[in-house]
Specification:
mainly alpha
């Protein structure tokens, strides 16, 4: 739609316009929804979607790690509960310990900015 950006690559167009790509917005939304489910804000049974890791809290990661379930079907690995686990386990302890959704969003955005994501 912007004629001066026709020859730029897809990622470059978004960067020049100051927009966030769909893939990053989707991951952010998934992480926010995961936070709501794990903290009980969403009235959903956690066991329907996730299995908390029983390895215990150690020096790597945070205390609310999720178990990565194996997927036999290719379509299953693209489900919400499968695609968000890796991103969730990568977060810092202070991010997942947020007291509210807005604090979580702010810490998530700061974490992603620090990581250059």
């Amino acid at each position: 739609m912007v004629s001066t950006l026709k020859k730029l690559l897809y990622e470059s167009r978004f960067h020049r316009l100051g927009l966030t790509m769909l893939q990053r917005r989707r991951i952010r939304g998934d992480l926010i929804e995961t936070f709501k489910i794990l903290t009980g804000i969403e009235k959903v049974d956690i066991k329907q979607f996730f299995e908390l890791s029983d390895t215990g809290y150690n020096l790597r990661g945070h205390s609310k790690k999720l178990t990565v379930n194996r997927c036999c079907l290719d379509s299953r690995k693209y489900f919400f509960s499968s695609r968000v686990v890796h991103h969730w386990n990568y977060l810092k302890q202070e991010t997942v310990d947020a007291q509210s959704v807005n604090i979580f969003k702010n810490r998530l955005d700061q974490h992603r900015q620090d990581m250059g994501i």
